[in-house]
Amino acid sequence: MDASCIKSCPPVLDYKTEKYVLTKNRKIGALHRLLHLGILCYIIGWVLILKKGYQETDSDPHFSLITKLKGVSVTKDFRQVEDKLWDVADFVKPAQGENVLFLVTSFIATPGQVQSVCPESPLILDARCGENLDCPAGESVLSGNGIKTGKCVKLNKTHSTCEIYGWCPVENASRLSKPRLSEAENFTLFIKNAVHFRKFNFSSSNTLETLNETYFKSCMYDPVSSPYCPVFRIQDIIRQAGYSFADLSVLGGVVNAHIEWRCDLDHPLTLCKPHYDFQLQAKENNFRTATYYWNQDGREYRDLLKLYGIRFDISVTGEARKFGVIPTAVSLGTGCAFLGGATFLCDLILLYLDEKASFYRSCKYEEVNPPDEQQSTSPGKLIDNFNQEA
Predict the structure, then answer these.
(1) Residue ending a domain, choose from 323, 349, 373
(2) SS3 309
(3) I need a labelling partner for 175 at 20 to 30 A (CA). Which of 36, 235, 344, 389 fits?
């Protein structure tokens, strides 16, 4: 090596510049082209076409929800005196219009309760007793209906229970074998939903804009023929959840109704339609309610109802997408970075893992010092010196 290749300054001040070396290595060349092809397929096929990486997204829509249940059923009165009519005000809890509602399908009634003393139910383990000492006065019955009075009362030849102070007689413990409101399977649920994507200032609704006042009273939802009629028959909802009305009508259940909006605003807005999905979340669902009244003597009574039914939890999610310059630039920039990464990977393999790596390194990296100022008096002479050294 001549004097021009001798280091004349500290390594920290060295400057590296790229030197392109054309190598006739078919394996590395094939790998390089395969990596480029894979990256292009990923960027074009997955990022841009499938995931639509050229679009901006809004995944937080503002929405409003209105629900209405309709139907009428008839059952025997609590005291078996006459028939009782159940309408919307009776079988829907809470009041209509919420995103959570409870449809009563059956009930167990305990009419005419009054605050007094009476034996606790033998089904309550904490209420069973053999003597008065088993019923300490003032102690509440665990999972029971009142406060122990200190007495053990014999109910029959096999059972004795603690006497309690509470609403007497205690709750009816009979079990249901069939639904009381069997007509509920033909009731209809109306779900009115509107969404607004603030980022794109776009709004839509799942109801048809029509001047026909009878349309929603006669239509029924169908994803093909009537996608903008959000009226669902109860038995159809449960069937879409994978069960039958008979499976849930006796002991009740919880059904999740999910409305999903997927709107591509680069396409016609008429294609932005809601998609409905119904899933059973749990079996058995009930709660208690009571109606209070006073007799002629001014004593307070109540009719206790243990209501079984189907609870509907309605949720709404959505996402709107539209072309944007920034996400397009980010996706393309990511692709370019991956292409550069493929070259870097091939360089590592060629220079450090290939069987002739040392030879390729000697060709790629070369230390060069500038010629002497005295030998570079003219541009022509400088070129001659470089040619001689080469």
Answers:
(1) 323
(2) strand
(3) 235
